């Protein structure tokens, strides 16, 4: 029995179309992972991209990232203004 080449090509094309459809559907999947009894939630899609991060305010009363940025800015500005003689209490940037 000789395999039908045209039939094999049609099957391969159908499989390719089904694979593309499945990949599109997978990309649209969103799942939510939780930690700390639901205090931290991460939403990720089928492409493994993080779409959302939710942290309950009670987990951290302060925004630590903001404090870190402020500290780095102050370090940088202190290095730039170290040679200036500014009046007491005057800070840069204004």
Brief rundown of the structure:
This protein has two helices and three strands. By secondary structure, it is of the alpha+beta class.
Notable traits:
alpha+beta, three-stranded antiparallel sheet, 2 helices, 3 strands, elongated
Provide the residue-averaged pLDDT: 84
Low-confidence stretches: none
Series of secondary-structure elements, N-terminal to C-terminal: HEEEH
Total number of strands: 3
Strand content: 15-25%
Q: What's the gyration radius in Å?
A: 28 Å
Largest sheet: 3 strands, antiparallel
Give the % helix: 40-55%
From the helix content, strand content and strand pairing, which structural class follows? alpha+beta
Distance between the termini: 87 Å
The 3D shape can be described as elongated
Strand order of the largest sheet: 1-2-3
Number of helices: 2
């Amino acid at each position: 029995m000789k395999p039908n080449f045209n039939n094999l090509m049609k099957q391969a094309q159908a499989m390719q179309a089904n694979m593309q459809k499945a990949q599109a559907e997978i990309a649209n999947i969103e799942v939510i992972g939780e930690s700390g009894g639901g205090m931290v939630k991460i939403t990720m899609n089928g492409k493994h991209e993080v779409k959302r991060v939710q942290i309950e305010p009670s987990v951290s009363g302060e925004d630590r990232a903001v404090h870190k940025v402020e500290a780095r800015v102050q370090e940088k500005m202190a290095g730039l203004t170290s040679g200036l003689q500014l009046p007491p209490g005057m800070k840069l940037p204004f």
